[in-house]
Amino acid sequence: MVGRSDPERIARKREQIAIEAGRLFGTQGYERTSVAQIAAAIGTSPASIFYYFTDKATLFRAVFERDLPATQALVARHADATDPLAAILAIVDELAQQADEPGASGLVVELLRRVEHDAELMGVVARTAQTVNEGLATLIARGIDHGAIDPTLDPTQSASWLQSIVDAIFLNAESGRSRRSELRRTVLGYLIPPSTTSPSSISLSTPD
After folding, report:
1. Which member of 2, 26, 62, 162 lies 3.0 to 4.6 Å from 18 by CB, making a disulfide possible if both were Cys?
2. CA of residue 104 relative to chain centroid, distance
């Protein structure tokens, strides 16, 4: 067992457990997934799982707690982009990448079922959503200033709408089919002024 004096190894182990738990919660559902199943999937014991997480609810929250630092890093990478529209496309595309993974839509459904009954979980999700909203709103405002984005749009409301589109990708995910190219087309159609055609510099294809 990892000693408590080794925070890096503890963090790596928590990450490993959270990743496997997320996969099982997404494919089997929260209620049908036991801690024993999660432990077996990573080759450890339930007692080891409880060493890192207080209970199953805490473990479920940890699946989504992973999103916050990743989202902060994503927004920070594009915060100073010279092309705000391209930066927005890159952000929404990366946010939607996980929708291509098995169980992604199931995990979102389980989140929706549990979030209203778990204030801590709601706080985790809200902080991540706020990070995305603020990052996108800033880029939208800059894009409006540059003349690349429809000036009639409200940046904060538009950022929320883009988040809703990404959420829809997860809820409508199909195994073996990526909708990220469709997502990019939808985002471009929404943001670009009606009298403007899609800039040739913006690729509509989904990046590898």
Report:
1. 62
2. 10
Alpha helices in 66-151 (DSSP H): 67-78, 84-96, 104-115, 119-146
pLDDT tens digits for range 7-43: 889 999 999 999 999 999 999 999 999 999 999 999 9
Pick from 155, 114, 120: which is nearest to 137 by CA?
A: 155
Q: State how far the alpha carbon of 57 is from the alpha carbons of 60, 66, 188, 201, in Å.
A: 5, 15, 38, 46
Give the C-alpha separation, 62 to 181, whole Å: 30
Amino acid symbol at 2: V
Domains of the chain: 7-55 (1.10.10.60), 66-191 (1.10.357.10)
Residue 2: band (very low, low, confident or very high) from pLDDT cuts 50, 70, 90: very low
CA distances from 19 to 15, 22, 25, 42, 51 (A): 6, 5, 10, 10, 16
